[in-house]
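Annotated sample (chain length 208).
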Amino acid sequence: MTDHTLARADEVLTELVELIETARTLPMSSSCVVPRERTLDLLDALREVLPPELGEARRVMAHRDQIRSEADRLAEEQLQRAQEQAAATVAAAETQARAAVEAAEHQARTSLAAATAQAAELVEAGRREQEQLVSAASVHQAAVSEAARLRSEAEEDARSMLAAAREQADTLTAQAHSYASATLSELVEHLQRLTATAENGRNALSQP
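Output written by the structure step:
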């Protein structure tokens, strides 16, 4: 803005101030009456001497707000996608863990049933031997002992398989939660960098 333009703007502002200060005050009120045409003429004159940079500044500010709004929208979308991916990962891990436990329980039940059936057959065979042989008592006792041993081994195998399945399920769940936490942490860092970039852009736009 040139010195002449500054001087003209100061003159117009001075006239506006004098016009308002000398305006007639309404009775019983702090309001006043100013001549509309003269006031509008002065405002038009002031608008003419204002630098065109003001309009450009308004456009820059509007563009800055648009960029910031778009950055906020993109950040929100990325955060939502990360949360959905983390939730899906955790759900898949929990489903896999439940399936592993169910499979181990089914296998344990099957093994226990087979051992029980085999033990029953041994006991029945021992009973038949008892009816036929004089030493049936010892045969029967051996069959009962063998049946008890087989059942004990089957129960121990079942407990081992269940423990392994539960341990695997816990590991899968922990890995899923760790992955979800790492994903969200990376997103937070990305959003912080995006916010810092947007803030730097805003500061650069606001500088003359």
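Annotation: The mean pLDDT is 81.
Annotation: Residues 119 and 147 are 4 Å apart (CA to CA).
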